[in-house]
Design a protein that fits this description.
The protein is α+β, with helices and mostly antiparallel strands. The protein has four helices and eight strands, in the order ααααββββββββ. The model is unreliable at about 25-40 (pLDDT under 50).
Length: about 200
């Protein structure tokens, strides 16, 4: 059986608490671990002042990591977005063909499109270098609407040297709700995921 994060943290609970790997609540540092994990870390031989300092150090570290999650790591990773766009003329069917390079390394986990309704556009290919993310047929661009659920994909890592290309077709459909025939519409495809931090 492979160890999980809890069992690994329990190998050294003091260090785990210090780096925020174990959640600590309340003000009784030693008892919290004893109640939740069956151990008596800090319950004996540790003054109340030392317990308070250890608890404060743990909580401070947890809170500071919210603002600076890359602290202490030489690999600085954030969640970024990379987008491409093409202008189409509403009510006029036309091919979609977009490509671009990100400014940094990014591992997209979600693809989103601003197709306003189903049937507005179809995507036939999303390719990173020679790897296709759509592995057969076509996909309605509305499947990738921003309000969609469970749309995670395993898109290969993009680098500034690798190009991503999206192809498909705008159907010529004019959505209701204020869209006007023969006016321009900026169709956008964006990729979101962990990326190397840029200055």
């Amino acid at each position: 059986m492979r160890p999980n994060s809890k069992t690994l943290a329990l190998r050294d609970p003091a260090m785990a608490a210090l780096v925020g790997a174990l959640a600590v609540a309340g003000s009784d540092f030693g008892v919290e671990f004893g109640d939740d994990y069956g151990i008596e870390f800090g319950a004996e031989g540790m003054s109340d002042a030392a317990k308070a300092r250890a608890f404060d150090a743990s909580r401070t570290n947890q809170r500071e990591l919210i603002l600076e999650p890359n602290r202490g790591s030489s690999a600085k990773v954030q969640r970024y977005a990379f987008g491409m766009q093409q202008e189409v003329t509403l009510s006029t069917a036309e091919a979609l063909d977009m490509d671009g390079n990100p400014d940094t390394h990014i591992r997209p986990q979600r693809v989103t499109c601003n197709a306003p309704v189903p049937g507005f556009a179809r995507l036939s290919a999303i390719k990173v270098a020679n790897v296709g993310v759509i592995v057969g047929g076509e996909v309605d661009a509305f499947d990738f609407a921003a309000n969609g659920q469970d749309q995670q994909l395993d898109v290969p890592t993009l680098s500034p040297a690798n190009k991503v290309r999206v192809t498909g077709n705008y159907s010529g459909l004019l959505p209701s709700g204020g869209y006007v025939t023969a006016t321009p519409f900026i169709f956008i495809v964006s990729f979101k995921g962990p990326a190397k931090m840029v200055a």
